Amino acid sequence: MPIVMVMDIPGGTSAHYDKVMELIGEVPADGGIFHVASPSENGWRVVDVWESQEAFGRFFEAKLGAALAQAQVPEGAPPQFLPTHRVAIGQGDTSHAVAFVATIPGTIDQYDEAVEKGGLLDSAGEMARPPGNVVHVCAAKGANEFLIVDVWESPEAFGAFMMNMGPVLESVGIGDFEPPPLQPVHNVIIA
Q1: Which of 15, 94, 131, 185 is 20 to 30 A away from residue 154, measured at CA?
Q2: Which tens digits make up the pLDDT trace of 44-72?
């Protein structure tokens, strides 16, 4: 099962990130499925989807660990690894993309109900991405919260989606949370 890796780097910058990417060289990494990097409220955030935690570990040992040290990236908390519940990756214009990364109070069952009520499943039961959505990832963070990682082509596309989904989320009991601000995407890699 794929995993989500979240790395928050307080004090991290786009210059740190760009130096790390220069040192790493080849992308996407073996076992990497999706990668997004953006500023965060307190520095820098990288969110990846990997085939497994072991695949990320091999990449970290072979390249990333040394590149982080050489680029003098400030140390943050250890990466967080979460099991994926749903991953929907497509293509889109990411030149003005924004990232929505939020921990949302609710259960995976509530999430599934919202996806179904919101008409976000195709006839095969797969995620049908709404207009302007490039990537959608849901990962369980515990019994009563989940992580959503979305990449949208623009803030307007995300806003239009939320106009429709807001009432759906409320109808399943997920409406009572303060979403974090959208962050401009610095880089997206899709394997």
Answers
A1: 15
A2: 999 999 999 999 999 999 999 999 999 99
